[in-house]
Design brief:
about 120 residues, globular, two-stranded antiparallel sheet, 7 helices
Length: about 120
């Protein structure tokens, strides 16, 4: 197995509930709110607060999380580098979707305006 396939498998098996508190801590440390984080997650995935909490309680993997998501059609407008990779060039769809979420959380933590994070929608 090559390195990227191993990384793809690792991301697929990660539990969303274990990463969510890290996202929250990252944005709150920079003065953003849980509500803003949820707004970003809902924009990308279609999950409202109740659905998001159910997924956290269920301890779903990223694979299940994104299988159940209704990905925003404008997600393809998310570009740039995250974790050393250009998100628009990632070939594995699940890894790309996870990196989309990482990128949005980064932009939120860096103080980017919400309308820019949500790609104008």
């Amino acid at each position: 197995m090559d390195g990227s396939n191993t990384q793809d498998q690792r991301i697929a098996k990660m539990i969303f509930a274990s990463v969510y508190p890290l996202y929250l801590a990252k944005v709150e440390k920079k003065g953003r709110t849980k509500e803003e984080l949820h707004q970003v997650i809902e924009w990308l995935t279609g999950f409202d607060n109740k659905q998001l909490q159910e997924l956290i309680n269920e301890k779903v993997t990223f694979e299940t999380f994104f299988q159940r998501a209704s990905l925003n059609p404008n997600a393809k407008l998310i570009t740039g580098v995250i974790c050393g990779y250009r998100v628009e060039e990632i070939e594995n769809p699940l890894t790309q979707q996870a990196r989309y979420l990482d990128k949005l959380v980064d932009e939120l933590a860096k103080g980017r305006k919400m309308e820019k994070i949500l790609r104008g929608s």
